[in-house]
Amino acid sequence: MVSREIRLVSRPSGWPTPDNFELVEVELSPPGEGRILVRNLFVSVDPYMRGRMNEGKSSYIAPFKVGEPLDGDALGEVVESHAPGLAPGDIVTHRYGWRDHAVLDAEQARRVEEIPGVPLTAYLGALGMTGLTAYVGLLDIAHFEEGEAVFVSGAAGAVGSMAGQIARLKGASRVVGSAGSREKVTHLVRDLGFDAAFDYHDGKIHEQLAKAAPGGIDVYFDNIGGEHLEAAIEELRTYGRVAMCGSISTYNATAPVPGPSNIGLTVGKRLTLRGFIVFDHRDRMPGLITEVGAWLREGKITLTETVVDGLENAPQAFIDMLRGANVGKMLVRLVH
Ligand code: NDP
User: What are phi and psi of 238, to 5 degrees?
Assistant: First the structure.
């Protein structure tokens, strides 16, 4: 059968452009023993993919190869199965995104169970790697505890919106978020239950954070790096912790980016800054599904998605996500 896939045709220098990608038709071989054919319904575009577009080791996963299809998380429907345990009609997540159809080993797919009232796309967001990143980063890496004050940057994005809501539901004394527009700031407070939020374009981040969290913060969930990290170090209390999740402010930089000028404060304040990669924490998936799944079912977590239609628009959706066009999880819908 004929499928379509997005390939990387050149490595971006600085910001990616649509010319770095091409849409190609390919002939797929039928699935053999132990394999399945999946029709993708939604594919995910994520910031870490930018690092994989560079040559060498700028990401924690191997770089994409020029001339080959991109990959990433996808949600699809099994069309044909030659494996026990999976049947046509089953909905699965897997890693062969950026294409209409995929033939893969059944072991590479995870069947998802529908939770009443929760869209299946949650398995690419709140109940997938995105939610797991927020869950593990806040609870296992930053060791957040009830009664603590939390600051989340990139708070209106996929991971940030989950980190902030989990902190609220786990009894944070104050949850503060930063985001890139007035609309996003309103969304954080009105829809997601943040106690305070600010637009990082509106002035010095450090000053805005000090105003939003007058007593300081205990935990910083860092999605952005750069000036955000510097501001958080300034406002963290003694024994504060930082989950070093990402530094998207640097992903398209063409020259080395300086580190926080106040890094010396980490000593006197006894701070812990700890990096982590979600793929090392798959064992926490059942905890996420149980706990966050229950919150979703009970309507305690607001799920936000930005959906772009059409595989041909996936590269632009990816670029737009890097520029902040998304609220919540950025997804590309392949089938209506
Ligand atoms: P988001 O949904 O948050 O989308 C990216 C957002 O980043 C944009 O919407 C934009 O929002 C913001 N942004 C872009 N450039 C800047 C900038 N210069 N300064 C401030 N904000 C900026 O993506 P994810 O939730 O998927 O990812 C969030 C972070 O988590 C990323 O750093 C990513 O790499 C990291 N991550 C880490 C994982 C791990 O295992 N450690 C796993 C998954 C993600 P705005 O409009 O607010 O600017």
Answer: -55, 140
